[in-house]
Design brief:
- The chain contains 19 helices and 23 strands.
- With 642 residues, it is of the alpha+beta class.
- The protein folds into three domains: 210 residues, Histidine kinase-like ATPase, C-terminal domain (Heat Shock Protein 90), CATH 3.30.565.10; 160 residues, Ribosomal Protein S5, domain 2 (2-Layer Sandwich); 167 residues, Rossmann fold, CATH 3.40.50.670.
- A hairpin with a 6-residue loop joins strand 9 and strand 10.
- Helix 11 packs across helix 17.
Length: 642
């Protein structure tokens, strides 16, 4: 990677203001104090090392979760400057860790050409929200070290040895008085670091988890960069063309794009700015979409694939089945807040559009077979969209003509305030009947489903509008589907899937979650989708109140508690519930529907890429990856009913 030739000394560390209020309002800086915020601490330190890689100085980053949930991040970059800062009169390194908005990433005369750490709060915020932090720096022929407790310096930077190496090592323990949990999720970190390695061609990132007796380790390095990224995302999908399309231009705003079409019906476009995932898109995504639509329509017209009488293909037609990564590097990016979810720089739209117009048009001309395969799919999508429009209008007209727009099997609640209402989507009429009798009619609605549901992963929108199993769900939620979906129109604040704790129930849950993910994604993103957790067992004895157990561990614990009270196992009747229909209305209310006792699992969008990958694997056309997944995970399956 090309080095950004610029002196990196103390006077490049610009101080904007002092460190205040981070511990009082941590959510302002890291989003939340949940597990999500905890993992954000790791990302902040890793992103500093990645910035060194983007500048051309860092080749390796090692992330280690030590015993006790201590995190260590090591890099072989230049090392944070150790000389005295002219304004703060302490070392530049200590300034970076104790002063908010101090860093080498502000303005054109900084230590970095481009950077993800725009606001300079990363290091100081991690320090402020940790019980302790220890920083070791190698540069200028020495080894330097400093340490902190809850953001306060306990050991100023001092030289502790000599070294010819360069780099920075940060160790920290998050503060348990601030965070809800200190348990890091290995898989969450693994996915994030893999993504980072894809975006930084040639950078090697390792992740080691030392908390268990046998350490876990992952190693990521991708010379193919975005091409490798797209291939990874499409590994479980049928491709329309073997090799991803690759576009790269190192202009004033460097642009890198990789595209591959698959036979699926969903679009998956991910955008990044300076390696930061802009999950809400922005001007770079806007430029990409505009150009994609223009270039394909121009090619189709020029090659008589679209006739004079034909309408232009719409953007959604051209994006059906696409997997694309857009990565831009911007000197002074304008993001919405520290979480950096949307890019606002207007000049980036034109930059991306110009690069796409030039390179994609050339690619299509040079690869007519690939162009034809993609356009055949786009035209098919256009016809399906028109069929879906007619089906949608038919549904709307039908709703207007009927006395009610709600499905006949829905037992609605009396409240009309979405924030306090919830709908249970229940598998089977029997369980639906019990749920209707056992519910609190004031705020709980029941929608029974029956029969096999459509797998939307293998169907277009026109099939979905005409599906008699999904129509009741669409009408009950009340906010439309796909591009028409409007989260402000939902009728229920909680949409709860309640299915049996067996294979068929798991299948129903997966089909419904696939539908919500593909066609009502804002419902998932907004945290409105939940899974009900019915009990697996009931322990009973004459004269004793029934005890419900939700897991095998729960059952074992209850046996232990009862034995301590002098009640032996052979005195107890154990019932294993095969389905919700086995419970009477009172039992269903008490165990699964009563807000005081029930267990609900909220479905989240923590990692949309991982969710897309899993859904494609489990519900898509490719059989071999699914078979491999089952073989690899069979050993971990519990409570499998045959």
């Amino acid at each position: 990677m090309e080095k950004f030739e610029h002196e990196y000394k103390a006077d490049q560390i610009q101080v904007l203001e002092g460190l205040e209020a981070v511990r009082k309002r941590p959510g302002m800086y890291i989003g939340s104090v949940s597990a999500r915020g905890l993992h954000h601490l790791v990302y902040e330190i890793v992103d500093n090392s990645v910035d060194e890689a983007l500048a051309g100085y860092c080749k390796n980053i090692h992330v280690t979760i030590e015993k006790g949930n201590i995190v260590r991040v090591e890099d072989d970059g230049r090392g944070i400057p150790v000389d005295i800062h002219p304004k703060t009169k302490i070392s530049a390194a200590e300034t970076v860790y104790t002063v908010l908005h101090a860093g080498g990433k502000f303005g054109g005369d900084s230590g970095y050409k481009v950077s993800g750490g725009l606001h300079g709060v990363g290091s100081s915020v991690v320090n402020a929200l940790s019980t302790w932090t220890e920083v070791t720096i190698q540069r200028d022929g020495g080894i330097f070290q400093m340490s902190f407790e809850r953001g306060k310096t306990v050991k100023h930077l001092e030289k502790i040895g000599d070294s010819k190496k360069t780099g920075t090592t940060v160790r920290f323990l998050a503060d348990d008085t601030i965070f809800e949990t200190l348990e890091y999720d290995y898989t969450v970190l693994e996915n994030r670091l893999r993504e980072t390695a894809f975006l930084t061609k040639g950078l090697r990132i390792t992740l080691t988890d030392e908390r268990e007796e046998t350490p876990k380790k992952a190693d990521f390095c991708y010379e193919g960069g975005l091409i490798s990224f797209v291939e990874y995302l499409n590994k479980n999908k049928e491709k329309l063309h073997a090799k991803p399309i690759y576009i790269e231009k190192n202009g004033e705003i460097p642009v890198e794009i990789s595209i591959q079409y698959t036979s699926s019906y969903s679009e998956n476009i991910y955008s990044f700015v300076n390696n930061i995932n802009t999950i809400e898109g922005g001007t770079h995504l806007e430029g990409f979409k505009r150009s994609l639509t223009k270039v394909f329509n121009d090619y189709a017209r020029n090659h008589n694939i679209l006739k004079e009488k034909d309408s232009n293909l719409q953007g959604e037609d051209i994006r059906e089945g696409i997997t694309a990564i857009i990565s831009v590097k911007v000197k002074e990016p304008q993001f919405e807040g520290q979480t950096k979810t949307k890019l606002g720089n207007s000049e980036v739209t034109g930059a991306v559009q110009g690069v796409m117009n030039e390179y994609l048009a050339t690619f299509l001309e040079e690869n007519p077979a690939v162009a034809k395969a993609i356009l055949d799919k786009c035209i098919s999508a256009s016809r399906a969209r028109e069929a879906a429009r007619k089906a949608r209008e038919l549904v709307r007209r039908k709703n207007v003509l009927e006395s009610t727009t709600l499905p006949g099997k829905l037992a609605d609640c009396s409240s009309n305030k979405p924030e306090e209402c919830e709908v249970y989507i229940v598998e089977g009429d029997s369980a639906g009947g019990s749920a209707k009798q056992g519910r609190d009619r004031r705020f709980q609605a029941i929608l029974p489903l029956w029969g096999k549901m459509l797998n939307v992963e293998k169907a277009r929108a026109d099939k979905i509008y005409n599906n008699d199993k999904l129509q009741p769900v669409i009408l009950a939620v009340g906010a439309g589907i796909g591009s028409d979906f409007d989260i402000t129109k939902i009728r229920y604040g909680k949409v709860i899937i309640m299915a049996d704790a067996d294979v068929d129930g798991a299948h129903i849950r997966t089909l419904l979650l696939t539908f919500f993910f593909r066609y009502m994604r804002p419902l998932v993103e907004n945290g409105n989708v939940f899974l009900a957790q019915p009990p697996l067992y009931k322990l009973s004895k004459k004269g004793m109140k029934d005890i419900y157990c939700y897991t095998d561990n729960d059952l074992a614990e209850q046996y232990k508690i009862l034995e301590e009270k002098g009640i032996q196992r052979d005195q107890l009747a154990l019932q294993r519930y095969k389905g919700l229909g086995e419970m009477n209305p009172e039992q269903l209310w008490e165990t699964t529907m009563n807000p005081e006792n029930r267990i609900l699992v909220q479905v989240t969008m923590e990692d949309a890429m991982k969710a897309d990958e899993t859904i494609s694997l489990l519900m898509g056309d490719e059989v071999e990856p699914r078979r491999n997944f089952i073989v690899e995970n069979a050993k971990d399956v519990k409570n499998l009913d045959v």
